[in-house]
Write a structure and sequence with these properties.
four-stranded antiparallel β-sheet; 7 helices; globular; 228 residues; single chain
């Protein structure tokens, strides 16, 4: 069976000459559908770089990145944008919500780009708001929501199109401990009940404790892996 994600000997270098930094060095990693996996390591270990390569937000200098058997490292332009839109959900540390849109409109936005009908969008947005515990707050704009509520909108937006995989880059970094745990419990339940695949880059112990698989990076290399 083809893994959901397969990176083969990916390397990524930033800078040149004496300022050159090898962020990733021949990293090979496979992720199966339904995983709840955390890529962990100290700052500068390459974990965010690896997540960005998996998500098609950056390209490797060498190696391949395959999602559902398709090499996204070879894609560019509209083909890559459309593939990301239809297959990958992103949750960022800084939420990345559109400030002039309401919570419901932020969740709906990608479905609008996909050409999904208004009736189906409304049903899906309501379902997502219920799942992340934001029913009744759909008309609020990001500035009217707490940090934890904004990140819940971001989770709902990432899930709204039923992507193959959800990538979360330090999703709890700007949240207090209680809010972070509450949000992680939502994502864990979605993984267990709906089979959604989550991959995190993090050094947050709360995520590390909940992940079923840990991939440790150090200096751009996979140091070890653990199942728990």
């Amino acid at each position: 069976m083809i893994p959901l994600i397969n990176t083969a000997a990916v390397s990524r270098v930033f800078g040149a000459g004496e300022a050159m930094v090898k962020a990733l060095d021949q990293v090979s990693l496979s992720i199966e559908a339904g995983e709840f996996t955390a890529i962990v390591g100290p700052s500068g270990s390459g974990k965010s770089t690896l997540l960005h390569l998996i998500g098609g937000l950056d390209k490797p200098d060498t190696g391949t990145v395959e999602l559902n058997g398709e090499n996204i490292a070879d894609m560019s332009g509209n083909k890559l944008s459309d593939f990301r839109r239809d297959n990958i959900g992103f949750i960022f540390q800084a939420y990345n919500l559109i400030p002039v849109l309401s919570a419901a409109e932020n969740i709906e936005y990608i479905m609008l780009l996909q050409g999904i009908t208004a009736a189906k969008r409304r049903v899906r947005v309501k379902e997502m708001l219920d799942i992340v515990g934001l029913a009744g707050l759909e008309k609020r704009r990001p500035a009217q929501l707490s940090g934890g509520q904004q990140q819940r909108v971001a989770v709902a937006r990432a899930m709204a199109t039923n992507p193959s995989i959800i990538l979360a880059d330090e999703p709890t970094a700007n949240l207090d401990s209680k809010t972070g745990i509450s949000l992680l419990d939502v994502m864990k339940e979605l993984n267990q009940t709906k089979g959604m695949t989550f991959v995190f880059s993090t050094h947050d112990e709360k995520i590390i404790q909940r992940a079923r698989r840990l991939v440790y990076l150090r200096d751009g290399l996979i140091e070890k892996e653990e199942l728990q």
